[in-house]
Amino acid sequence: MTTPANNQPTTLPGRYFTDQEIYGRESERIFSREWIYVGRESAIREAGEYFVHIQDEERIIIARDLEGEVRAFYDLCRHRGTGLCSSDEGKFGKYITCPYHAWSYSLDGELASAPNMEETEGFQKADYPLKAAHCGTVMGAIFINLSDDPVDFDTHFSPLEKRFASWGIGGLRTAHQVEYDVAANWKLIVQNYSECYHCPTVHPALNELSHFRATANDLEEGPFLGGPMEISRPGGGMTTTGERCAPHLPGLEGPDLQRAYYYFIFPNMLVSLQPDFVLVHRLVRNGPGRSLIACEWLYHPDAIAEPDFDPGPAVQFWDETNSQDWTICERSQAGVSSRAYTPGPYSSLETMLAVIDRQYLQAMS
Ligand code: FES
Ligand SMILES: [Fe+2]
Question: Dihedral through CA 316, CA 317, CA 323, CA 326, nearest 10?
C-alpha cells in the first residue's frame, strides 16, 4: 500500500492479517494456484512411503510410486469419498486401500480392485483413478499445485535451480528438523524474514555475526525475492560459536564462501543458503492468525558422515533466532489486530517488504 500524501509504501491494513474472508481469498487465489512447497523428497525415499499435506480443508497424499516418482493425490476414495489415510505419514504396501469397502488403488493412482463392483452395470475401474494434484520436484523439494492449469513447473523453477545450483541442495540431507506453532499471520512471518532492520534489536547475537547493514537484494522481482548478507568473521558461520559446523559446501567459491543468502520463494518457502548448510522454512497457514512453520537444517552427506559431526551450534543458533522472530511476529499480530492499528511507513531497509506486498496484492486481485 502507499500513503496518498507522499506515495511512500506502507504496511498492509489490519484486515489482511485478521479477516476470514481475505484468508479464504488467499486460499483460492494464491494457495490453490501457486506451486506450494510441501516437504523434502528425502521424507519418502522408498516406494509406498507417504505423508499427508494438509492445506485448509484439503488433505493431499504425497507418495513415492513403484517407479520412484513422487505423486500427489487428494485423500479421498472414488467410491463414496472416504479419506484413505488413517495416519498422516507412513508406508503403503503395493496398494492404497480404502478402509470402508476396500477399493484398492495402485501407487500411480489407478483403481486396481473394487470388490463386487463387477455386478454393477457399466462400471469400469479405469473411470475411477484417484484424483491427482500436480506435483514436481526440484532441489530435493516437493511442490504441489492444486489448480487445473498451473504454470509450467520447469519454466517456473529453472531460474531458481540455476541460481541455487552451487549449494547442491538436492544432494543435502536433513540433519535436524523442528516445527513451530506461531500465533501470527503467515505474511508477518514472511515480512519478518525479508528484512534485517529488526536484527540489532531482536537478534543481537546474529547482528554480531552478520551486520544488519551488510546486506543487499539480488532477486528483487518475481516469485523469488531476497539476497546476500556478509558474514563478518572470515571463515565464520552463523552458529552459537561463530564457527561453522561443517566444511563449506563443495560447489561454493569466491564471495559465496563469506555470505549467507536469504530468499523468499512465493508463497510459502524460505531458504537460507549458508556456506556450510542450508536452512529451509516451510509455512502452512492455520487460519488468519496462526501458522505452522516446519524448519529443516540440511548438510552435505559427507559432513554428516564424519564421526565428530555436530550441527548443535547451528541448530541452537537458528532455533533461538527463530524463537526471537516468532515472539516478535506474535506481538505484531496482536498489534495489527487492534482497532487502533493503521498502516505504518516502511523504512529504506524494508524495500523488499513493499515488493512482497505488491506481489501479494497482485496475486489477490
Ligand atoms: S468409500 Fe472407499 S471403498 Fe467405499
Ligand atoms: Fe529475524
Answer: -140
**Each residue of 115-141: pLDDT tens digit?**
999 999 999 999 999 999 999 999 999
CA of 364 to the centre of ligand 2 (A): 26
Q: Set out the domains of the chain in order of their start, with CATH numbers.
A: 36-150 (2.102.10.10), 166-364 (3.90.380.10)
pTM of the model: 0.95
Is the Cβ–Cβ distance between 129 and 28 less than 8 Å? no
Q: What's the 323 CA to ligand 2 centre distance in angstroms?
A: 9
CB of 101 within 6 A of ligand 1: the answer is yes
The ligand 1 atom at the shortest distance from the C-alpha of residue 98 is: 2
Ligand 1, atom 3: closest residue by C-alpha: 101
Contact present, 79 and 114 (Cβ < 8 Å): yes
